[in-house]
Amino acid sequence: MALIFPHADDSDILSLSRLLSSEPDFPKILRTSTLQLLHLHLIAPRTVRYVANIPKWLLTQGIVLLHFERSLDRQCPPLTVASLLALLAEHQIKAVSKNTAVSHLTEMRSYGLLEDDQVTSDRRIRPYLLSNRGAELVRSWFDGHLASLDLLDQGNRLERSKSDAGLLYKAHPAAIRMLLGQPAWCDPPLGVATFVWAESGSNILHDLLLRVPDEHPLDGIIHVGRVRASDITGKYIISRSHAHRLFSKARVA
After folding, report:
1. How many other CB atoms sit within 10 Å of the CB of residue 244?
2. pLDDT of the chain along its 253 residues, tens only?
3. Cα Rg of the chain, angstroms
4. Is 241 helix (H, G, I), strand (E, B) or coil?
5. Backbone angles phi, psi at 205, to 5 degrees
């Protein structure tokens, strides 16, 4: 799959090594994408927290994937705790417990991101659907990424997405299933894992990325200047003690 839309051959795939070695605008475009993600946080901070670390990202993206696949094919399983856990198990992801999945689904429903799917009267199953509000946020997230990819190769992904609303339902599950199969994504290096496994850690990592000087290469040790805990706590709904612990761990990672 050539960066979301499978219309090109393998020679057109922009690998990470190619991005870092032969795409001089990649750091600038990465910053643009990061700004878009943090803008979503500013719009809906309590909502975006559902993708603000890896465990929640895995659960939320799995939820959206199952919803879209079911929307396109009624033979696919409905979105339930069981189908969500089965999806993660299929990709050998063991970091999420049943209780965590139940709590995550319940919270997303209470915030209006999910609603009940009235396909069965069996109260033991309780299937869900992505709400209209949830779908709008997913589309904003998806289109933001497409816009960034288009900047890399002057593509027309965003234009195609806007002209065909159903494309999201096909491209999102394909992209997420690909990512779930990447060990480096679900089990990142320690320096990254220190942040992305912590509450709101992905947002904090994005914040730090924006502090990297434009001319600095994205490898080796990167100096981002002085970072105060108070710069972080107010923005990303975490306590001062949590921020201190997180940065202390990051210093020795």
Report:
1. 13
2. 334 443 444 445 566 666 666 667 777 788 888 888 887 777 777 777 777 788 888 999 999 999 999 999 999 999 999 999 999 999 888 778 899 999 999 999 998 999 998 766 556 678 999 999 999 989 988 998 898 888 888 889 999 999 999 999 999 999 999 888 887 777 788 888 888 888 888 888 888 888 877 666 666 677 777 887 777 887 777 888 888 888 888 877 6
3. 19
4. helix
5. -60, -40
CA distance 164 to 170: 11
**Residue 243, class by beta-carbon neighbours within 10 Å (0-12 exposed, 13-18 middle, 19+ buried)?**
buried
Q: Which residue in 48, 131, 122, 139 sits closest to 82, CA to CA?
A: 122
Closest C-alpha among 109, 173, 104 to residue 117? 109
Among 203, 222, 220, 200, which Cα is nearest to 211's? Answer: 222
Closest residue by Cα to residue 38 from 144, 147, 179? 144
State both tokens at 108. 């997303």
Amino acid at 90: E
End-to-end distance of the chain based on CA atoms, in angstroms? Answer: 34
The count of residues in the chain is: 253
pTM, 2 dp: 0.83
Where is 114: in which H helix or E strand?
A: strand 114-116
CA pair distance 48, 72, nearest whole angstrom: 26
Side-chain half-sphere CA neighbours of 235 within 13 A = 21
Q: Report in angstroms the alpha-carbon separations of 220 from 83, 160, 191, 196, 217.
A: 41, 37, 11, 19, 8
